[in-house]
Specification:
Elements lengths: L1 H10 L4 E2 H12 L8 H13 L3 E6 L7 E6 L1 H12 L11 H12 L2 H28 L3 H29 L4 H7 L19 H5 L1
Antiparallel strand pairs: 1-3, 2-3
Helix pairs in contact: 5-6, 6-7
């Protein structure tokens, strides 16, 4: 779990408490991640404490309520080292909302639907790419700039997929979409059909 290990990495620099960890995390990863929910953070800290990876100490304060300070344990440092030295697989595979949207649009057989889906996604990705580029230019932290650059490369890869989908589904005047709508992986070959010499599976079965 990436955030769990990121919290361990922050605690490896020294003991800290919830809101301080939240600020440190957001400063470390930059704006492309978004704000860290404090309730989620405390759930992570509770889990780390139950697993013996951190210890919690309640510290009284003169005016404010007691503050709980967390410190990484030896087991926590071992877990952090194991995470850092292991490769990171793609977390979600290729299960993604846009891929399912392209699948649905393609199998509808409607070229205008496919064009709309691809054009809307391309516009969204171009705006996202411009936003990331602006954030990268404003960032002072070299690691944050690096992360923003990596996020931009992911967007560029998504744009390349949009281009690939357009070429695969729309370049042949709709024949591929017709085949997909009919339940075939490919459009019917020229001259094939019940009366042609190259009859398809239906004729062969009969």
């Amino acid at each position: 779990m990436a955030i769990q290990h990121a919290v361990l990495a922050l605690l490896a620099r020294g003991p800290s408490y919830g809101y301080e960890l939240k600020s440190a995390f957001e400063a470390a990863v930059g704006p492309q991640w978004g704000p860290l929910n404090i309730g989620h953070l405390y759930q992570i800290l509770d889990r780390l404490s139950r697993d013996g990876l951190v210890v919690a100490e309640r510290q009284p304060q003169p005016v404010k309520p007691d503050r709980v300070v967390y410190e990484i344990t030896a087991d926590g440092r071992g877990e952090l080292d194991s995470w850092l030295t292991a490769p990171s697989p793609r977390s979600g595979g290729f299960r993604d909302d846009f891929f399912l949207k392209v699948t649905a649009a393609a199998r509808s057989g409607r070229a205008d639907t496919v064009r709309t889906v691809l054009a809307n996604q391309r516009g969204h990705l171009m705006r996202e790419l411009r936003n990331l580029d602006g954030l990268r230019r404003q960032a002072d932290d070299p690691v944050v700039r690096l992360l923003l650059s990596a996020a931009g490369r992911h967007v560029e890869a998504d744009l390349a997929f949009v281009d690939d989908a357009e070429a695969a589904l729309l370049a042949d005047g709709g024949a591929t979409l017709t085949g997909l709508a009919a339940g075939s992986a490919a459009p019917p070959a020229a001259g094939s059909g019940p009366s042609g010499e190259g009859a398809g599976p239906a004729r062969a079965a009969g």
